[in-house]
Amino acid sequence: MQSLYDLNYEQMGDFAQSMRWKRFRGHQIFQWLYRERVTDVDAMTNLSKETRSILKERFVIDPLKLVKKQVSHDGTTKFLFQTEDGSLLESVMMVFDYGRSVCVSSQVGCNMGCAFCASGLTKKRRDLTSGEMVAQFLNIQRELDKEDQRLSHIVVMGTGEPFDNYENVMNFLATVNHDRGLGIGSRHITISTCGVVPRIYEFADEHTQYNLAVSLHAPNDELRSRLMPINKAYPLSELMKAIRYYGQENNRRLTFEYILLKGINDQPQHARQLAKLLHGLNAYVNLIPYNSVDEKQFKSVTREAAMVFYDLLMKNHVRCTIRKEHGQDIDAACGQLRINEIKKGLGQ
Ligand code: SAH
Question: Which pLDDT score is estimated for 333?
Answer without folding.
Answer: 65
